[in-house]
Amino acid sequence: MRASTCTVCALHPLAAVLTGADNPYRVLQWLRRSPAARLLGRLALDPEALDHKSLDVLPQRTATAYVRGLLVTAGILPPRDESLALLTNRVARTVAELPPRHAGLVRPFAAWHIIRDARRRSSRGRYTYAAHRGDCGNVLAAISFLNWLDTQHLSLPQLQQRHLDTWAIDRPTLRSRFIPFLRWSTARRLCPPDLVIEHSAAQLPGHFQAEEKHRPELLRCFPDTALPVEVRVAAALVRLYALPLTRIVELTDDRLRHDQGHTYLTVNRHPLVLPPKLARLIDEQLQRTPGTATRPGAGTFCPVTVLGVRAPLSASPTP
Fold it and tell me: Which range, 109-113, 259-263, 305-309, 313-317, has the best average confidence (pLDDT)?
């Protein structure tokens, strides 16, 4: 009984957020049908589970990310850099599955080179989801190379340039990702010092969308109410500014600024003037997200239910 009372007290801020929604029927529908709501119900049975560490050990599905976002919005969990957390958790799980001889190399490389640099960028507010994907790719490329060395009955001290060239030619998608590990290994004298691998040459775009197809798709974003608002916002940003989806899902409402009849969206520190139709569409999405008006910078433009990338920081339940 005491534990149950503690749980109710701990979840009281979340109840206040949910009951404060403009449309209570959406909340009721979410509670009945959403996997995130069922997960939240299981967590409510154990007050000790209401922390980031307990959520990290669960399968990292959409529901898990959404519940975490709700708990952070309600103030039950402290905010954190989710991209950095994804990196550290995935590296820990990956290294734990490696054989000891590989873990002894990958663990210090990941901890003192990859994660250390990620923490530095995170402290400056510059660590993005795309950066997390790239850093994970660097770690996986190092593991792939060590596995290949095993198949060749080689070790890092025995590595020669011809071996490195053979590996890089057969794996063009991994060659750039492997460069950080090669430099780290060379600096620590784990392999010969004269080994080099070059970045692959940058390629210009080879496919362009025809104007007669691009324009109708852009215009569809504004009047087509059959599409979810967040989809229309994301599609318009892609069509107008060629923003990648990994960048769009990280945009928050503190990037918006209204000034003398214009609306500005700041991307990479550069304010862009939004067309009035797109500005109204973004405002419509934010108005549908309870809590964004009272918590500046908390509402994301594109919820995880559509893009499947990360949880929104707003408290709006998904249908």
Answer: 109-113
Distance, CA of 102 to CA of 271 (rounded, Å): 46
> What is the reported pLDDT for 230?
85
34, 317 contact by CB (below 8 A): yes
DSSP 200: P
Chain segment 66-105, per-residue pLDDT in tens = 888 888 888 888 899 999 999 999 999 999 999 999 999 9
Same domain, 53 and 106: no
The answer to whether residues 221 and 296 belong to one domain is: yes
Find out whether 300 and 312 touch, Cβ atoms under 8 Å: yes
Where is 167: in which H helix or E strand?
helix 161-170
Which H or E element spans position 232? helix 229-241
Between the alpha carbon of residue 236 and those of residues 43, 221, 226, 227, 308, the distances in Å are 37, 6, 15, 12, 18
Rounded CA Rg of the chain = 23
Query: What is d(CA 81, CA 75) in angstroms, rounded to the nearest whole number?
Result: 15
Say how many domains are in the chain. Answer: 3
* Block residue for tokens 């923490």: 119
Please name the residue that has the structure tokens 């206040």: 16
Domain that residue 178 falls in:
82-187
